[in-house]
Amino acid sequence: MDNLTHSLVGALLGQAGLKKKTGLAMPALIIGANLPDVDAACFFWLEGQEHLGFRRGITHGPPAMVLLPLILAVLLWGFDRWQEKRGKRPEGRRPVSFKWLFLLSFIGCLTHPALDWLNVYGIRLLEPFSSQWFYGDTLFIIDVWLWALMGFATWFSLRREKRDGEWMRPARVAIAVSLAYIAMNGAITSGREARDSDVVFPGRVVIASPVPLWFWQREMIIGGNGEYGIIDHAIESQDLNSTTRKNDAKFIELVGECALAPAIASAEENSELEAFLFWSRAPFAKRAEDGSVVLHDARFYDPRARDRFSVALPDVACQELPSQ
Predict the structure, then answer these.
(1) I want to staple 105 with a disulfide (CB 3.0 to 4.6 A). Which of 72, 79, 91, 227 is the partner?
(2) How do residues 139-168 score in pLDDT, each as one tens digit?
(3) Among the listed residues 13, 176, 172, the one whose alpha carbon sits nearest the alpha carbon of residue 108
(4) Is 304 helix (H, G, I), strand (E, B) or coil?
(5) pTM listed for this prediction
(6) Side-chain half-sphere of 168: how many Cα atoms within 13 Å?
């Protein structure tokens, strides 16, 4: 998820009462909720799409969930001691407990992979023990409804606290409603993917991708072997192998023009391609204007916009997909 969502989760946990446990509790929760995204620094040393194979991995796995909170707790504890020695420690700050700083940083960090798992991008929850990707397919990466709910609840809780009112209850209610909202979206996704996977498209990749704003809708991505149909609603009896499939108005678009395997085999010692294929869940090859190949992922393909999730293979000629 985006970093505003991560930050709001940390803030809500603090306003729900956790910030009473120790001084600097809110920084521990909010920074901790964002800390696994320290892997974004890879943009400074990785080229092109190589970051796709690095992000949401080592800093989101079990060892990082212990080490990152520990580092954060040490830094916050040291900051408090540094301020105290300089005589600049705020008088209103609660006593700082290292134990609670670590626990709250740990809680904040745990919320991060939990939220990242909810979208179609994927996360390697077990890195470095396993490089398997996990997908929740539950929320769009930026959910404005969660922004509105959690943002308002945080503001309202802080406002009540300033006026000496009951300030923890609004945050707790917002957390409960947010969890219910996520569960509802999970049920929508599970229903769509189960129906199309088990009944309509047995054996094929089926992804119910949440769309921005309209949280109850799903963009269905169904296919395999380098050819995917992107569908605007569930269909009952259409087979992607049908020769009439390209004329079916129920498809937004059928993507995949070039054979995928030859393109991959022809591109040797290409670290950018290797990282892309490691990350990709629904890869397909499209013909470039010069007849070469560009690899895309159906989850993030938009023919009307510049595709940031693609790899150009200028030395690989497009070979037509075999007839199915």
Answers:
(1) 72
(2) 999 999 999 999 999 999 999 999 999 999
(3) 13
(4) coil
(5) 0.88
(6) 7
